[in-house]
Amino acid sequence: MYYEPFFIVLVGPSGVGKTTVVREILKLHGDIKYSISATTRTPRKDEVHGRDYYFLDISTFKDWIKEDRLYEWAIVYGDYYGTPRESVDEFLKEGYDVIFDLDIQGGSSVKSKRGNTITVFLLPPSREELRRRLLRRGDKEDIIVKRIKEVEREMDAAFRFDYIIRNGVLEETIKKVEAIIVAERQRSKRIRLSSQDPYGRV
């Protein structure tokens, strides 16, 4: 008996801590792989091509769109973002669950295109804390103002997703995301019986 691998998509306002949560989950679960997004934006300090994002020029990104190499893509604050297909499909074939950190538009798009997806909306503890997080990661003031203004609209979208977690204390957030993953792996709709060992443990 085994379960069918699925997508775990963390969504929420920019700066809410999605990437940090993903990194902690990956440390704890060797059976989960990370979907690295592609973008045309400039790398932030300490970001590495092929680890944090695939940093592409606009011409290359548009070629990927034409070649249908992306699950989804969008323009966010003037930059292109997208989810590459190739590595994600390979992870699924190998039996891994795949975790994503996406904006709201990207998360909605992935869920609409692939049914075997769970979505977790991360809320910031407060506007003030969100602003501090954006400042810490080096966002420019004009970008921070735009993103704070978007928070109200993005909060309204939270109930379109499967789960909602307020990301205040990181350790508590990790435990909640882990609990969701464990429970989802036991969902009857995901369970498949093996002809060799139909009573095997999931």
Explain this structure.
This protein has 202 residues and is α/β, with parallel strands linked by helices. The strands form three sheets. The protein has a five-stranded parallel sheet, with helices on both faces. A four-stranded mixed sheet has the order 5-4-7-6. Strands 1-11 form a two-stranded antiparallel ribbon. Strand 6 and strand 7 form a beta hairpin. The model has no long low-confidence stretch (mean pLDDT 88). This is Guanylate kinase. InterPro entries: GK/Ca_channel_bsu, Guanylate_kin-like_dom, Guanylate_kinase, Guanylate_kinase_CS, P-loop_NTPase. It catalyses: GMP + ATP = GDP + ADP. GO terms for molecular function: ATP binding; GMP kinase activity.
Please summarize what this structure is.
The protein has 202 residues and is an alpha/beta fold.
Question: What are the defining features of this structure?
Answer:
single chain; 202 residues; alpha/beta; Rossmann fold; 5-stranded parallel beta sheet; 4-stranded mixed beta sheet; 7 helices; 40% helix; 24% strand
Itemize the secondary structure elements and their pairings.
Blueprint: E1 2-3, E2 7-11, H1 18-28, E3 32-34, E4 37-39, E5 53-55, H2 58-66, E6 70-76, E7 79-84, H3 86-93, E8 97-102, H4 104-113, E9 117-123, H5 127-136, H6 141-156, E10 163-166, H7 170-185, E11 191-192
Parallel strand pairs: 2-8, 2-9, 3-8, 4-5, 9-10
Antiparallel strand pairs: 1-11, 4-7, 6-7
What's the CATH class, please? Alpha Beta
What spatial order of strands do you see in the largest sheet?
Answer: 3-8-2-9-10
Give helix and strand order, one letter per element, not per position.
EEHEEEHEEHEHEHHEHE
- Strand tally is 11
GO molecular function, one term: ATP binding
Binding site for ATP: 12-19
Catalytic activity: GMP + ATP = GDP + ADP
Protein name: Guanylate kinase
